[in-house]
Specification:
One of its GO terms (molecular function) is quinone binding. Pfam families: adh_short_C2 (PF13561). Keywords: Oxidoreductase. By secondary structure, the chain is an alpha/beta fold. The chain has a single domain (13-259), classed as NAD(P)-binding Rossmann-like Domain (Rossmann fold), CATH 3.40.50.720. The chain is 44% helix and 14% strand. The protein is built from 9 helices and 7 strands, in the order βαβαβαβαβααβαααβ. The protein has a 7-stranded parallel sheet, sandwiched between helices. The longest helix has 28 residues, at 122-149. The protein starts with 18 loop residues before the first strand and ends in a 7-residue tail after the last strand. The model has no long low-confidence stretch (mean pLDDT 96). It binds nicotinamide-adenine-dinucleotide.
Protein backbone atom coordinates (compact mmCIF):
# COMPACT_ATOMS: atom_id res chain seq x y z
CA UNK A 1 0.00 0.00 0.00
CA UNK A 2 1.49 3.36 -0.99
CA UNK A 3 1.72 6.30 1.37
CA UNK A 4 -0.78 8.52 -0.44
CA UNK A 5 -2.37 11.71 0.96
CA UNK A 6 -5.55 10.96 2.91
CA UNK A 7 -7.61 12.77 0.25
CA UNK A 8 -6.95 9.80 -2.04
CA UNK A 9 -8.84 7.51 0.38
CA UNK A 10 -12.63 7.03 0.31
CA UNK A 11 -14.46 9.67 2.41
CA UNK A 12 -16.51 8.53 5.42
CA UNK A 13 -20.27 8.31 4.85
CA UNK A 14 -22.84 10.63 6.37
CA UNK A 15 -21.70 14.05 5.16
CA UNK A 16 -23.82 14.26 1.99
CA UNK A 17 -26.54 16.88 2.35
CA UNK A 18 -24.96 18.33 5.50
CA UNK A 19 -23.81 21.93 5.76
CA UNK A 20 -20.25 22.77 6.76
CA UNK A 21 -18.74 26.16 7.64
CA UNK A 22 -14.99 26.34 6.98
CA UNK A 23 -13.01 29.42 8.09
CA UNK A 24 -9.69 30.45 6.59
CA UNK A 25 -11.04 29.12 3.30
CA UNK A 26 -9.15 31.68 1.22
CA UNK A 27 -5.78 29.99 1.79
CA UNK A 28 -4.40 26.68 0.54
CA UNK A 29 -5.28 24.40 3.46
CA UNK A 30 -8.78 25.84 3.98
CA UNK A 31 -9.35 25.57 0.24
CA UNK A 32 -8.45 21.87 0.32
CA UNK A 33 -11.02 21.41 3.10
CA UNK A 34 -13.75 23.17 1.12
CA UNK A 35 -13.14 21.01 -1.97
CA UNK A 36 -12.97 17.82 0.11
CA UNK A 37 -16.29 18.50 1.85
CA UNK A 38 -18.02 19.38 -1.45
CA UNK A 39 -16.70 16.12 -2.89
CA UNK A 40 -18.53 14.21 -0.12
CA UNK A 41 -21.81 15.89 -1.12
CA UNK A 42 -21.77 18.39 1.75
CA UNK A 43 -22.59 22.05 1.08
CA UNK A 44 -19.97 24.49 2.28
CA UNK A 45 -19.93 28.07 3.51
CA UNK A 46 -16.36 29.23 2.96
CA UNK A 47 -15.41 32.03 5.36
CA UNK A 48 -12.41 34.33 5.13
CA UNK A 49 -11.53 38.02 5.11
CA UNK A 50 -12.84 39.99 2.13
CA UNK A 51 -9.27 40.59 0.98
CA UNK A 52 -8.98 36.88 0.12
CA UNK A 53 -12.06 37.04 -2.15
CA UNK A 54 -10.23 36.18 -5.38
CA UNK A 55 -8.76 32.95 -3.98
CA UNK A 56 -11.85 32.07 -1.95
CA UNK A 57 -14.17 32.51 -4.93
CA UNK A 58 -11.88 30.41 -7.10
CA UNK A 59 -12.08 27.68 -4.46
CA UNK A 60 -15.86 27.81 -4.09
CA UNK A 61 -16.38 27.82 -7.88
CA UNK A 62 -14.10 24.82 -8.35
CA UNK A 63 -15.72 22.97 -5.45
CA UNK A 64 -19.23 23.66 -6.76
CA UNK A 65 -18.29 22.71 -10.32
CA UNK A 66 -16.83 19.36 -9.29
CA UNK A 67 -19.46 18.88 -6.54
CA UNK A 68 -21.68 17.10 -5.78
CA UNK A 69 -21.91 19.60 -2.90
CA UNK A 70 -22.15 23.37 -3.44
CA UNK A 71 -19.87 26.00 -1.89
CA UNK A 72 -20.39 29.74 -1.35
CA UNK A 73 -18.02 32.41 -0.08
CA UNK A 74 -19.09 34.41 2.99
CA UNK A 75 -16.61 37.19 3.74
CA UNK A 76 -16.22 37.67 7.50
CA UNK A 77 -13.73 38.52 10.20
CA UNK A 78 -13.71 35.70 12.77
CA UNK A 79 -12.78 38.12 15.55
CA UNK A 80 -16.14 39.89 15.12
CA UNK A 81 -19.22 38.58 16.90
CA UNK A 82 -21.54 40.41 14.50
CA UNK A 83 -19.76 38.90 11.48
CA UNK A 84 -20.29 35.46 12.99
CA UNK A 85 -24.01 36.15 13.32
CA UNK A 86 -24.12 37.07 9.63
CA UNK A 87 -22.28 33.84 8.73
CA UNK A 88 -24.81 31.74 10.64
CA UNK A 89 -27.76 33.63 9.10
CA UNK A 90 -26.30 33.26 5.61
CA UNK A 91 -25.68 29.53 6.18
CA UNK A 92 -29.26 28.87 7.27
CA UNK A 93 -30.67 31.08 4.48
CA UNK A 94 -28.56 29.34 1.83
CA UNK A 95 -28.69 25.72 2.95
CA UNK A 96 -31.32 25.51 5.71
CA UNK A 97 -29.06 23.86 8.30
CA UNK A 98 -25.64 24.02 9.96
CA UNK A 99 -24.04 20.71 10.92
CA UNK A 100 -20.27 21.18 10.99
CA UNK A 101 -17.87 24.02 11.81
CA UNK A 102 -14.17 23.89 10.96
CA UNK A 103 -12.33 26.65 12.83
CA UNK A 104 -9.29 26.81 10.54
CA UNK A 105 -8.65 30.58 10.26
CA UNK A 106 -5.51 31.77 12.02
CA UNK A 107 -2.69 34.22 11.99
CA UNK A 108 0.05 31.95 10.66
CA UNK A 109 1.40 33.21 7.35
CA UNK A 110 0.79 36.75 8.62
CA UNK A 111 3.16 36.18 11.58
CA UNK A 112 5.77 37.86 9.35
CA UNK A 113 8.81 35.91 10.44
CA UNK A 114 10.12 34.35 13.61
CA UNK A 115 11.46 36.48 16.45
CA UNK A 116 12.52 35.88 20.07
CA UNK A 117 9.67 36.28 22.55
CA UNK A 118 11.55 39.19 24.11
CA UNK A 119 11.07 41.09 20.85
CA UNK A 120 7.37 40.41 20.32
CA UNK A 121 5.16 43.39 21.03
CA UNK A 122 1.82 43.41 22.84
CA UNK A 123 -0.17 44.31 19.70
CA UNK A 124 1.16 41.24 17.86
CA UNK A 125 0.40 38.99 20.83
CA UNK A 126 -3.15 40.33 21.09
CA UNK A 127 -3.82 40.01 17.36
CA UNK A 128 -2.71 36.37 17.28
CA UNK A 129 -4.89 35.56 20.28
CA UNK A 130 -7.82 37.58 18.86
CA UNK A 131 -7.89 35.50 15.67
CA UNK A 132 -6.62 32.08 16.78
CA UNK A 133 -8.35 31.85 20.16
CA UNK A 134 -11.13 34.43 20.38
CA UNK A 135 -12.11 33.71 16.76
CA UNK A 136 -12.36 30.00 17.52
CA UNK A 137 -14.46 30.63 20.62
CA UNK A 138 -16.75 33.09 18.80
CA UNK A 139 -17.28 30.52 16.06
CA UNK A 140 -18.30 27.87 18.57
CA UNK A 141 -20.53 30.39 20.37
CA UNK A 142 -22.23 31.41 17.11
CA UNK A 143 -22.96 27.95 15.70
CA UNK A 144 -23.82 26.13 18.94
CA UNK A 145 -27.48 27.29 19.15
CA UNK A 146 -28.24 26.11 15.58
CA UNK A 147 -26.55 22.76 16.27
CA UNK A 148 -28.36 22.31 19.58
CA UNK A 149 -31.70 23.13 17.92
CA UNK A 150 -31.15 20.56 15.19
CA UNK A 151 -30.11 17.80 17.60
CA UNK A 152 -26.33 17.92 17.31
CA UNK A 153 -23.27 18.78 15.27
CA UNK A 154 -19.52 18.50 14.96
CA UNK A 155 -16.97 21.24 15.51
CA UNK A 156 -13.36 20.73 14.48
CA UNK A 157 -10.80 23.27 15.65
CA UNK A 158 -7.34 23.51 14.16
CA UNK A 159 -4.40 23.63 16.54
CA UNK A 160 -0.80 22.69 15.69
CA UNK A 161 1.78 20.23 16.96
CA UNK A 162 3.84 23.21 18.12
CA UNK A 163 1.24 23.73 20.86
CA UNK A 164 2.72 20.66 22.54
CA UNK A 165 6.33 20.59 21.27
CA UNK A 166 6.96 24.32 21.62
CA UNK A 167 8.89 26.04 18.85
CA UNK A 168 11.41 28.86 18.68
CA UNK A 169 10.41 32.24 17.27
CA UNK A 170 6.65 32.56 17.59
CA UNK A 171 5.67 32.13 21.24
CA UNK A 172 2.34 33.90 20.75
CA UNK A 173 1.31 31.46 18.01
CA UNK A 174 2.46 28.42 20.01
CA UNK A 175 0.57 29.59 23.10
CA UNK A 176 -2.54 30.31 21.03
CA UNK A 177 -2.59 26.80 19.60
CA UNK A 178 -2.22 25.26 23.07
CA UNK A 179 -5.19 27.44 24.10
CA UNK A 180 -7.22 26.11 21.17
CA UNK A 181 -6.74 22.58 22.52
CA UNK A 182 -7.88 23.64 26.02
CA UNK A 183 -10.91 25.40 24.53
CA UNK A 184 -11.68 22.24 22.56
CA UNK A 185 -11.87 20.21 25.78
CA UNK A 186 -13.94 22.82 27.62
CA UNK A 187 -16.43 23.12 24.76
CA UNK A 188 -16.67 19.32 24.43
CA UNK A 189 -17.63 19.06 28.11
CA UNK A 190 -20.25 21.81 27.85
CA UNK A 191 -21.86 20.87 24.55
CA UNK A 192 -21.74 17.09 24.79
CA UNK A 193 -25.14 16.83 26.47
CA UNK A 194 -26.59 18.43 23.33
CA UNK A 195 -24.85 15.94 21.05
CA UNK A 196 -22.46 18.60 19.79
CA UNK A 197 -18.97 17.13 19.50
CA UNK A 198 -15.85 19.32 19.64
CA UNK A 199 -12.49 17.98 18.54
CA UNK A 200 -9.27 19.38 17.11
CA UNK A 201 -6.77 18.45 14.44
CA UNK A 202 -3.12 19.28 15.19
CA UNK A 203 -1.21 19.44 11.91
CA UNK A 204 2.53 19.05 11.64
CA UNK A 205 4.50 21.41 9.40
CA UNK A 206 2.75 21.56 6.04
CA UNK A 207 5.00 22.21 3.06
CA UNK A 208 2.97 25.15 1.72
CA UNK A 209 3.55 28.81 0.83
CA UNK A 210 2.64 29.98 4.33
CA UNK A 211 5.25 27.70 5.93
CA UNK A 212 7.86 28.82 3.39
CA UNK A 213 7.43 32.43 4.46
CA UNK A 214 8.39 31.39 8.01
CA UNK A 215 10.90 28.56 7.49
CA UNK A 216 13.93 27.82 5.35
CA UNK A 217 14.13 24.99 2.84
CA UNK A 218 16.59 23.23 5.19
CA UNK A 219 14.12 23.43 8.09
CA UNK A 220 11.30 21.99 5.99
CA UNK A 221 13.52 19.16 4.72
CA UNK A 222 14.63 18.33 8.28
CA UNK A 223 10.97 18.23 9.41
CA UNK A 224 10.15 15.82 6.60
CA UNK A 225 13.06 13.52 7.54
CA UNK A 226 12.07 13.51 11.23
CA UNK A 227 8.71 11.85 10.49
CA UNK A 228 7.98 8.15 10.85
CA UNK A 229 6.55 8.58 7.34
CA UNK A 230 9.52 10.55 6.03
CA UNK A 231 8.14 12.88 3.37
CA UNK A 232 6.88 16.48 3.09
CA UNK A 233 3.34 16.99 4.38
CA UNK A 234 0.68 18.45 2.07
CA UNK A 235 -2.67 20.10 2.81
CA UNK A 236 -4.42 17.00 1.46
CA UNK A 237 -2.78 14.90 4.20
CA UNK A 238 -5.12 16.59 6.69
CA UNK A 239 -8.31 15.85 4.83
CA UNK A 240 -8.93 12.26 5.97
CA UNK A 241 -8.73 13.05 9.70
CA UNK A 242 -10.83 16.17 9.25
CA UNK A 243 -13.63 14.40 7.36
CA UNK A 244 -13.61 11.60 9.91
CA UNK A 245 -13.99 14.02 12.85
CA UNK A 246 -16.73 15.91 11.00
CA UNK A 247 -18.69 12.79 10.08
CA UNK A 248 -20.87 10.37 12.07
CA UNK A 249 -18.03 7.82 11.76
CA UNK A 250 -16.53 9.51 14.85
CA UNK A 251 -19.86 9.90 16.68
CA UNK A 252 -18.49 8.81 20.09
CA UNK A 253 -15.29 10.90 19.88
CA UNK A 254 -15.19 14.33 21.52
CA UNK A 255 -12.71 16.57 23.30
CA UNK A 256 -9.81 14.95 21.44
CA UNK A 257 -6.96 16.41 19.44
CA UNK A 258 -5.85 14.22 16.57
CA UNK A 259 -2.22 14.80 15.62
CA UNK A 260 -1.70 14.55 11.86
CA UNK A 261 2.03 14.88 11.23
CA UNK A 262 3.26 11.66 9.66
CA UNK A 263 4.32 10.33 13.06
CA UNK A 264 6.75 12.96 14.30
CA UNK A 265 5.20 13.82 17.66
CA UNK A 266 3.83 11.03 19.84
CA UNK A 267 1.55 12.08 22.69
N1 LIG B 1 0.78 25.54 7.40
C1 LIG B 1 1.23 24.77 8.41
O1 LIG B 1 2.32 24.20 8.38
C2 LIG B 1 0.37 24.58 9.63
C3 LIG B 1 0.83 23.73 10.64
C4 LIG B 1 0.05 23.55 11.77
C5 LIG B 1 -1.17 24.19 11.87
N2 LIG B 1 -1.58 25.00 10.86
C6 LIG B 1 -2.87 25.65 11.01
O2 LIG B 1 -3.68 25.30 9.90
C7 LIG B 1 -4.55 26.39 9.59
C8 LIG B 1 -4.37 26.81 8.14
O3 LIG B 1 -3.01 27.17 7.95
P1 LIG B 1 -2.51 27.92 6.65
O4 LIG B 1 -1.15 27.42 6.35
O5 LIG B 1 -3.55 27.87 5.58
O6 LIG B 1 -2.39 29.42 7.22
P2 LIG B 1 -2.52 30.81 6.46
O7 LIG B 1 -1.99 31.85 7.35
O8 LIG B 1 -1.95 30.69 5.08
O9 LIG B 1 -4.10 30.97 6.26
C9 LIG B 1 -4.93 31.37 7.29
C10 LIG B 1 -6.22 31.91 6.69
O10 LIG B 1 -6.97 32.48 7.77
C11 LIG B 1 -7.47 33.72 7.32
N3 LIG B 1 -7.69 34.65 8.41
C12 LIG B 1 -6.75 35.28 9.16
N4 LIG B 1 -7.34 36.13 10.01
C13 LIG B 1 -8.68 36.03 9.80
C14 LIG B 1 -9.80 36.67 10.37
N5 LIG B 1 -9.67 37.60 11.34
N6 LIG B 1 -11.04 36.34 9.92
C15 LIG B 1 -11.19 35.43 8.94
N7 LIG B 1 -10.15 34.77 8.37
C16 LIG B 1 -8.91 35.09 8.79
C17 LIG B 1 -6.41 34.26 6.38
O11 LIG B 1 -6.93 35.28 5.53
C18 LIG B 1 -5.97 33.02 5.65
O12 LIG B 1 -6.73 32.79 4.49
C19 LIG B 1 -4.24 27.48 10.60
O13 LIG B 1 -5.09 27.34 11.73
C20 LIG B 1 -2.81 27.16 11.01
O14 LIG B 1 -2.49 27.69 12.26
C21 LIG B 1 -0.85 25.23 9.75
Amino acid sequence: MSNLPASAAPAPAGLAGRTVVVTGAGAEIGGAYVRAFAATGANVVAVDLLRTARQALETTRTASRTGPGRAVFAPADVTSQSDWQLVVERTIAEFGRLDVLVNNAAVYRALSGKRPLTELVVEEWDQVFAVNVRGTWLGIKAVAPAMVDSGGGSIVNVSSVVGRTGAVGFAHYVASKAAVEGLTRAAARELGEHNVRVNAVAPGLVDNDASRTLNTETYLAAAARARSLPRPMQADDLVGALLWLASPASSFVTGQTVVVDGGQVFT
